[in-house]
Amino acid sequence: MPDAISRDACRLGDGRLMLRPWRDGDAAELHEAVRKSVESVGRWLPWCHAGYGMAQALAWAACCRATWQEGPQFAFAVRDAASGELLGGCGLNEFDRTHRNANLDYWVRGSRHGQGIAVAAARLVAHFGFAELGLIRIEIVAMPDNRASRRVAAKLGARIEGMARQRLWAWDRAHDAAIYGLIPADLDQPAEAQNAATSS
User: Fold this and answer.
1) Which of 78, 134, 155, 189 is the most buried (most CB within 10 A)?
2) Cα–Cα distance for residue pair 2/163, rounded to 1 Å
3) What confidence score (pLDDT) does residue 58 get?
4) pTM of the prediction?
5) Number of separate helices (H) and strands (E) present in the chain
6) Pairwise CA distance, residues 87 & 17, whole Å
């Protein structure tokens, strides 16, 4: 993995979405998006709750800034390329430098669910991980009944590799999780090949 990726210069996009590292100036929009997404996003992500305040949003932006150069996570704000609206977040974390793999996570504000945003953002970040960070494997970990997150993983081309017992800790208890594996070749599969792989 490279020693440093310029935070200020890093931009990912596909014409529809624009992804860049989180900034302090994103905190107000992040706070609003989280508070309006508690019923949907909050069902699966414990940090998304009704008590989420500006202090948490500012702390998240500061954490992302601090950890970017160190490499334990590369977190991106996901925005609409045309309007600039904050749509959610996507990033890579839990790096295993020895084996060149990492975890991929994503979330989209409740009002923009069902529009393919998570898949598009995750694909951009996965390409970044493989091409710029030298990863050879990316994992996506989701609770078994989080159908939306699992559909994103499958549409991305990731393969379901099993159920891991007590893989996640949230809301003060352990949860089993579905584990998906993504390698560079998966992102280049045509849609029909991906569908065949995930349905077999």
Assistant:
1) 78
2) 32
3) 97
4) 0.91
5) 6, 8
6) 9
Question: Rounded to an integer, what distance in angstroms lies between the CA atom of residue 148 and that of residue 151?
Answer: 5
DSSP 101: E
Which residues are CB-contacts of 61 (< 8 A; sequence separation ≥ 6)? Answer: 22, 23, 24, 26, 27, 30
Name the nearest CA neighbour of 16 among 137, 131, 112.
112
At 80, which helix (H) or strand (E)? strand 73-80
Residues 52-69 pLDDT 10s: 999 999 999 999 999 987
Question: pLDDT digit string (tens) for 104-123?
Answer: 999 999 999 999 999 999 99
CA distance 55 to 60: 9
Collapsing DSSP states into helix, strand and coil, what is residue 112? helix
pLDDT at residue number 188 = 66
Residue with the bigger pLDDT between 179 and 193: it is 179
